[in-house]
Amino acid sequence: MAIAQTPPTREQLDRWLSPTATTSERVQGLLAIGLSPADLSRAFGLTVSALRNWGTGQAEPRPDAAITLDDLRAVAKILLDGDLEPQRVAHWMRGWNPRIESRPLDSVATKPMEVRAAAHGEVLGRAMVAA
Question: Who contacts 74 (Cβ-Cβ below 8 Å, separation ≥6)?
Answer without folding.
Answer: 19, 116
